[in-house]
Amino acid sequence: MNLFAEIAISLLLVVGGAFTLVGSWGLAKLPSVMTRLHGPTKATTLGVGACLIASMIYFPARGGDFSAHELLIALFLFLTAPVSANMIAKAHIHRQGRGVDPNPSDHIINGLPSPPGDSDWATFVGADRAAHKAATETIETPPPRP
Question: What is the pTM of this model?
Fold first, then answer.
């Protein structure tokens, strides 16, 4: 293996390890759910990506064949990390906006709280009904003055 490949692999592994460490530290130590999302989705994704690139360089440099496994792993990681972070953020905002207790054991036992008014949680059908009702209501005007 040539010196350039060894240096590149070593640097990528150190950088990847540092990003992964920072991402893990952020996940454990940051104060809220929304700030803790940045650790695994940004730093850890870059860390794993750097380690995968190091692996892609290492095996062909040792005389082996090129393998696309690392590319597929990186593609899967880069596609799923933002989607999962988005879902976690939406769930957090949804729970925080309704004022739902962070301990959902009561809701699991007693059922979910009912939506406000006549709306539907999943499709917001009630919002359309409320807008239609507001648009079709007649406003009573006082009689004209003599």
Answer: 0.59
